[in-house]
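Standup notes
- HV: blocked on the assembly model, inputs below
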Amino acid sequence: MGGGPAGSLFTYFLLDMAERVGIDLNVDVYEPRDFSRPAPHGCNMCGGIISESLVQNLATEGINLPANIVQRGIDSYCMHMDVGEVYIDNPLFEKRIAAVYRGSGPKGIKEMKWGSFDGHLQSLSDKKGACIIDEKVTELRRQDGRIFIKTKTRTEQSYALLAVATGVNTAALKLLQKADLDYKPPQTTKTAIREYLLGTETIEKYLGTSMHVFLLDIPRLTFAAIIPKGDYVTICLLGDKIDSELLETFLNAPEVKGCMPPDWQWDKPACQCSPRMNVAPAPLPYGDQVVFLGDCGVTRLYKDGIGAAYRAAKAAASTAVFHGISAEDFRSHYLPACRKMTNDNRIGMVIFWFTKIIQRLRFVRRAILAMAAKEQESADNDKAMSMVLWDMFTGSAPYREIFLRTLHPVYLARLFWHSFMALIFPSRKIKPGLEGTERVTTV
Amino acid sequence: MVKGTLGKIYHKGEVIIRQGESGDCMYVIQGGQVEVVQEMDGEEIKLAELNEGDFFGDMAIFEREVRSATVRSLGDSSVLTVDKKNFLRRIQEDPSLAFRLVQSMSGRIRKMSETVTGLRISQPPWNRE
Ligand SMILES: Cc1cc2nc3c(=O)[nH]c(=O)nc-3n(C[C@H](O)[C@H](O)[C@H](O)COP(=O)(O)OP(=O)(O)OC[C@H]3O[C@@H](n4cnc5c(N)ncnc54)[C@H](O)[C@@H]3O)c2cc1C
């Protein structure tokens, strides 16, 4: 039920593993969206960043992202703060992050030059032998050890296992609560996404192949990013109940305007939406013959939601094929993968709490900028701050690992030193060698 | 090479990994073709040509040995690096991630066995062990 990343990847791995061990399975995927259509019909509303770790994991699984799906390969990011900005390059100088559209593009798109990411994953599960039913599930019940599903036009079908991957932006959550499944949905918060048509050349000139992230002192804003795509840029805001006032404040911030072209009209987006985001997991992401995957179950806090959907999908598929589909099987073999994410999210919360403090302390922001700028200039591989920022913004490493790296005595000593300097000399130029170049700017 | 391709672009003849050098990552071809060659007594022997989706350099993930062959781009190619740390971390959580890698290595062993058998058959009977 649901053919977004969680649903399609679950289907793909389920059929792949079943084939390996010689089990013949019939899988129906209920998905009402047509991913070959632009938003709102074909879009699953997201920033469209496929994290570095997910790109690598998928490649190792034999799932490569073709060039007609990847709108732009990202090789660096630029961190913007009120005290300045710094570019942080990928250590391998390689395009290791993919910027994609989940559907085939924003509302009103004229020329479809790229395909849909969700459509690509769906085609993989289709090729593995799944049957895609382009309808929404409207009724759901459990009887005599079978799960019964009905759509508007089709007769009721019964199944041995129901994998729910509906995300959180759907009325289906109510349907699931009413059915006899012991399901409580995850806690969510409202976010904001805006798409602007700038054209490939303008994007190349102003944003390049970098993701632009913002650490600004705007109340309730946890994280904001500008993601360059093919002809459009996506602006994403995450935080606490993002509303139009907060969005307007952000879009008018000098740091944001500074990295967009001068004639950019912030109030004329091509497409916009306010999807909900999972911020606390569903308490019980499984039951007898039912498993909840991706956003409607457990995901990573703020980052790499598609990567989390991949991990959950694979853990659930291997449980079903190699162990069984009872609640006990999912408890023993699927729950540990979910717990790992939930525990990591707790550390993530601590990191975001620190980030909020940093957003309020100018001298710490200056220290971070100085430390990152110094590392970027240096030829050696010791780039502790850059790597912490890189993994934090791209979602490539678990929060636990990022947190442990920030406790390293060398990292702490350097941060204290730079903070001390920023306190004593609040308006000192940060990096004379790089100052004024396009890689570092200070205010 | 199309714009959206992930990884790093290598041009014709460019060396991606060099025999004898140490390495701690493997590679997945995203687009184009590469050739694998082994240098022996100053001579180059071509071992294979690899295409989109193929892996190379994977032995470095499991061993601490130097690269056993040189890999060069044939025409323009784009190649994604998979770092050892990310890979091993994921394998801890999900050992089945190594399945495709093992499958590719097993394919290589099969090919090698066929080559060895072919070499033995092509020898005159008195020279076979
Ligand atoms: C603002 C924002 C930005 C984000 N940016 C990123 C990012 O850059 N990178 C990243 O990795 N993650 C990002 N995420 C998170 C990411 O979007 C989710 O984690 C991911 O989409 C989860 O996949 P899913 O398959 O669980 O759910 P979804 O992608 O929501 O897919 C659910 C599917 O179920 C279908 N469905 C719903 N109801 C029914 C029904 N009744 N019957 C049948 N089908 C149904 C829907 O049509 C849909 O296709 C972002 C999220 C938000 C809110």
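- HV (later): unblocked. Chain A touches chain B through 36 residues (CB under 8 Å). The CA atoms of residues 16 and 22 of chain A lie 10 Å apart.
- Next: hand off to the docking folks.
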